[in-house]
Design brief:
The protein is built from seven helices and two strands; from the N terminus they run αααααββαα. With 167 residues, the chain is mainly alpha-helical. The chain has a two-stranded antiparallel ribbon. The longest helix is centred in the last third of the chain and has 27 residues. The protein is globular, with a radius of gyration of 18 Å.
Length: 167
């Protein structure tokens, strides 16, 4: 609204988020190329499903249940991956990156920043506690659904969809 486009273009997280959308769209398009003959429709269907899952919209323009397992697995992973820094998913990615750097360089001080400002450690602890609980609920919920007789894909995807509020 303030036409500060330089701030938009310089945002690393936006670049990364758009990169994930582009890469997964291309991977899915390559994987389903035998299912949709038109290249325009192929990329449109792939991009729509990727953006729909990453933004937790949950709309579908094609029956992606007919797609190969690789494409369905990418879409399932995007349910967890979709958030940006303001969400717990984005903060979890940054925290994991920081932990990897500190494992390689134990004396390094690596602050996590959002919008150029460091995030306090108590906020990070809360985010990690939430993330742990989220994953614990995901695993337990998936096991429960499997115990009810659902197949692996249904068990995992139904719980991921419910927890992530996807569509």
């Amino acid at each position: 609204l303030k036409k500060q486009w330089d701030r938009v273009y310089s945002d690393e997280e936006l670049k990364f988020y758009l990169g994930v959308i582009i890469v997964t769209t291309l991977l899915i398009a390559w994987n389903i190329r035998g299912f949709i003959p038109s290249k325009a429709d192929l990329f449109r269907a792939s991009a729509f499903q990727v953006v729909s899952i990453m933004t937790t919209t949950g709309y579908a323009t094609v029956n992606f249940d007919l797609w190969p397992a690789f494409s369905k697995m990418l879409l399932l992973l995007l349910m967890f991956f979709g958030g940006c820094a303001g969400s717990t998913a984005g903060a979890m990615k940054q925290y994991c990156g920081r932990e990897l750097i500190q494992t390689l360089h134990p004396k390094a001080v690596v602050p996590i920043k959002v919008g150029g400002k460091p995030v306090p450690d108590d906020v990070l602890r809360n985010i990690m506690a939430f993330s742990f609980m989220y994953m614990a609920l995901f695993v337990l919920g998936s096991l429960f659904m499997a115990m009810l007789g659902q197949d692996l894909i249904t068990s995992v995807s139904s719980v991921a969809t419910t927890l992530g509020n996807v569509g």
